Amino acid sequence: MRAKLSSTQIAWRAAQDIADGAYVNLGIGFPEMVAKFQPPGREAIFHTENGILGFGEAPKAGEEDWDLINAGKKAVTLKPGTAFFHHADSFAMVRGGHLDVAILGAYEVAETGDLANWSTGPKGVPAVGGAMDLVHGAKRVAVITEHVTKDGKPKLVKRCSLPLTGVGCVTRVYTSLAVIDIEGGRFVLREKLPSLSVDELQAMTGAELVVPGTVADLIVPEL
Prior knowledge:
By secondary structure, the chain is α/β, with parallel strands linked by helices. The protein has helices at residues 7-15, 87-95, 131-137, 198-203, and strands spanning 23-26, 45-48, 52-53, 83-84, 101-104, 108-110, 115-116, 140-145, 156-157, 172-175, 178-183, 186-192, 209-210, 216-217.
C-alpha cells in the first residue's frame, strides 16, 4: 500500500491555512476534524448552520449537553462570547458573505472548481442541504478528501459526473497525496508527498495537473 496521509493529517494540513480571527464553517463529518488543529497563536471563530457562532471543542465523554449541538448533531461546548441565533439568521450570515472559509468533503471536484459532495444513491446524503449556500456564500471554499475512491478512481476530475453542489466554487483541495489549487479552470499542484513523483500523482488524477516551477513537499506531523 502506497504511503498516504490519514484523514487526521489532511485535516491538520487544512487547518494551517486558516487565518487568526477567521469565521469558519466546517462541513459535517470529516471536515469537523479541522477544528482540532488550530495553530498556536491563532483562533478561528466557528459557525454552524443550526445557529451557533464561536463554540468550543467537543466535551469529554459523559459531559455532553445535548441541547448544545452542531449541524452534524455532535455535542459542542461554549466559549466566552458564544452567540445563538435563529436558523434563518444563520443562513443570512452564509448567504450575506460573512464567512471567510468553508471546508467541505467531496465525492468529486472538477478542474473548473465545480463540487459534487452529495448523492442520491442508497448510501448518499439524501439532499444537497446547506452546502449549496456555503459554497457560494463563503469567501474561500476548500475541500478535504482522499485523492482516489476506494475503487482507485480519481476524485479530482475534468468534469463531475454526480449532481453538483456548486459551480466554480472550490479554490483549494487538500488530499491524501497533495495540495492542489484551482486557478483559471486548471488544477495547479502546490504540494505533494515527497515519496510520490509528479507522474505517479498525475496517473491518479482525472485531469491535467499544472506544475509550476516549484512544488513543495507535503510534510505533516504524525498524529
